Amino acid sequence: MDPVSTLAIGLNLHMVPAAEGGRQSPILNGEGPGSRFGYKPNWGLPGWDDGQQTAAPVLGFSRPSVYPGDDVRAIIVPLFIANVPEWRDVQLGQVLRMYEGSRICGLGTMMSIQSVIWPMPLGDQERIAGWLVG
Fold first, then answer.
1. pLDDT by residue (tens digit) across 48-63?
2. pTM (predicted TM-score)
């Protein structure tokens, strides 16, 4: 696969509590090199209708286990930015809806946006993942 330009987006992510319709179980193994891009939710962009979503796997979370109701940091990387040019219009402070199927499982406020390439080299992953720990 030839490298393509995309974004790495740092989020302050609030997981919707299970009692409010979020996930029923935690996301496990969400931190560290062995878990990178293993969790693959979809995202609803600002201005999109409810249910409209696109792919952006999670590079990592700020802790190993993320429970419904938690507030964590996360970094996502949109995969199809050439097909979804609206990714280029996102701005700091806007909120993305995190989906699993039709269920909204999280709300992420964009705190960091930087240009990267996909597939992301390991050195870039390490550098960008540093944001997760502050």
1. 999 999 999 999 999 9
2. 0.96
The count of structural domains within the chain is 1
CB 118 within 8 A of CB 77: yes
Question: Which amino acid does the sequence have at 85?
Answer: P
Partners of residue 111 on adjacent β-strands:
none
Residue from 10, 4, 9 nearest 81 by CA:
4
Q: What is the CATH number of the domain that holds 42?
A: 2.40.30.10
Q: Are 36 and 60 a contacting pair, CB within 8 Å? A: yes
- Express each pLDDT in 25-37 by its tens digit: 999 988 888 899 9
Residue 100 contacts residue 57 (beta carbons within 8 Å): no
